[in-house]
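User: Sequence in, structure out. Go.
Assistant: Echoing your sequence, followed by the C-alpha cells.
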Amino acid sequence: MNKTKGSFESEISKAVTKWEKDYLGRGPISVKSDILRDMIIVTLNGILTPAEYKLCKDREGITTIKRTRTELVESGVEELKEVIFTITGKEIVSFHTDLSTRTGERIMVFKVSNGFDEKR
C-alpha cells in the first residue's frame, strides 16, 4: 500500500516535533510539513523561549541566538535525516535551515535523492 503525500507530511510533522522535544528539550507550538518536488519543507512556529526573544532586541543578541540554535540543530541533523529516511524511504542529500528571531519561526528544508512522484 502506497502512502499518500498527506500522510507522509503528517508523519514528518509528528516526527520532527518529537525530535525537537527529545533532542532540544522543548518542542514548537506548531509544525507544518510540505512535500514539493524533491524537497520536504518543514515550518516550525514558536520555537524561541521568552528569554531568547528578550536577547533578540539587538544585533548581537540576534546573531548569538541564530548561531546557537543553528549549531544545536546541526549537531543532531544526522538523527533527524534518519527519521525522515525511515518515514519516506528517501535519502537526504542536503539540509538547510534558518530561523526568524522576530517571529520565532524555523524553516527546515530537506532535499531528497529523487523526488516524490505525483501519485503518492
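User: And one key feature?
Assistant: The chain has four helices and four strands.
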